[in-house]
Design brief:
Elements: H1 4-18, E1 22-28, H2 41-45, E2 50-56, E3 59-64, E4 70-73, E5 79-83, E6 102-109, E7 115-121, E8 128-131, H3 155-162, H4 169-174, H5 184-194, H6 214-232, E9 275-279, E10 282-286
Antiparallel strand pairs: 1-6, 2-3, 3-4, 4-8, 5-7, 6-7, 9-10
Helix pairs in contact: 1-6, 3-6, 5-6
Length: about 290
């Protein structure tokens, strides 16, 4: 399932074509994906201008000049592609061109008044599109924690979030009510960069008085850097993921621990071997020598 960097990469790929465009119609070629598609999807969006294409955690959001926001999730295999005919600079190379998997088509007039089609393709049909309420709220977004990008996520915040928690550090980092958007891959990579064991108690990042430890500051920097590096590289291509232009992300070539069980640790001076354990039913990769 795409993680935050992949979703952000897709958002950036769609943004030039979609922001400022006006919806001519929305074509739904099946009644449901993971959930039923809104019956009035096309009627509610026809004639509206897309003001902003955003992201919250692993969700894409479309805000319009009037009416509720549309929330989109890529699921396991969902992707968007842009087909603008002969329009210059158009994204055209799609990961999947099987028409049977083209489930939703946005027919738009872009900011240059040229016709554009934005197509949502999802072979496994685990993605979804839902309207938020008029105030922009929805149960999918309610209760999400802080975004792991920017300077908001620092050592002090991690200490405050994890103080007193006995749960393993990896599990705490995957708790979407604390930090929104972190997934299995980038948690593993961030813990490796910070030199912290996924087994470590989350509460150890705070002192008895609740102050941030050096570990907390180190981990905050590692999270921000690994997310930034992954976005710059276009995300990671695992199984079905691809960018809006159909090209593949390359961060997987930079993995230091994820899916590298039995291989040598890449940290300079470390002679450890990457191990795999299972935590909460999911694979965890780490170096038992340099991660404490």
């Amino acid at each position: 399932m795409p993680e935050l960097p992949e979703v952000e990469t897709v958002r950036r790929g769609l943004q030039p074509a979609m922001e400022g465009a006006r919806v001519l119609s929305v074509e739904t070629r099946r009644p449901d994906l993971r959930f039923p598609l809104p019956l009035d999807l096309s009627a509610r969006l026809k004639g509206r201008q897309i003001v902003s294409l955003g992201r919250r955690a692993k969700y894409l959001t479309m805000e319009f000049d009037r009416g509720p926001m549309l929330i989109c999730h890529l699921g396991m295999s969902g992707s968007f592609r842009i087909d603008a005919g002969d329009a210059p600079g158009a994204f055209h190379n799609a990961r999947s061109r099987v028409a049977a998997h083209d489930h939703v088509v946005f027919h738009l007039n872009d900011s240059r008044q040229e016709a554009v089609q934005v197509i949502f393709n999802d072979p496994r049909r685990f993605g979804f599109m839902l309207f938020a309420d008029e105030a922009g709220g929805h149960k999918m977004l309610d209760g999400l924690g802080v975004e792991p990008t920017g300077n908001t996520l620092d050592g002090d915040l991690l200490a405050a979030l994890f103080r007193g928690k006995k749960t393993p550090l990896k599990a705490a980092l995957l708790d979407q009510s604390l930090i929104a958007g972190l997934g299995n891959i980038y948690v593993a990579e961030a813990l490796w960069r910070a030199g912290l064991s996924p087994r470590r108690g989350a509460g150890s990042l705070a002192t008895a008085s609740g102050k941030a430890t050096e570990r907390a500051r180190r981990l905050a920097g590692a999270i921000r850097s690994v997310i930034a590096d992954a976005i710059e590289a276009g995300g990671s291509t695992l199984r079905d993921y691809a960018q809006a232009d159909g090209s593949l992300g390359y961060f997987q070539h930079q993995f230091s621990v994820y899916d590298r069980e039995g291989e040598a640790c890449r940290k300079p001076g470390c002679h450890g071997t990457i191990s795999r354990i299972v935590q909460s039913g999911r694979s965890t990769f780490y170096c038992p020598v340099c991660q404490h």
